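hey so u asked for the seq, here:
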Amino acid sequence: MTVYIEYVELSHRGPDTSDGEVAVLRLLVRLPRHWRCRHAATADRIRIWITVPGDATPERVRAAVAESLNDPALAAWRLEEAG
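ran it, structure tokens below
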């Protein structure tokens, strides 16, 4: 099976202090279960490397991450532009 790896980065944009480790857990549980993820988190930045089946596209992966941010607990987090 072919796999596709996508890198996404999120940043905290709220006035409150944040906890990136808690936020990344909230985000990861909302992504499809068959995706494999590695992450690095600080208080205000989250980096995730997502491994998905080969039929995925960067747009589909980013859309799923963006959809996960609809959780009110993640409202202060923003998906950075693909670079």
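Helices lie at 20-28, 58-68. The longest strand covers residues 3-12.
lmk if thats what u needed
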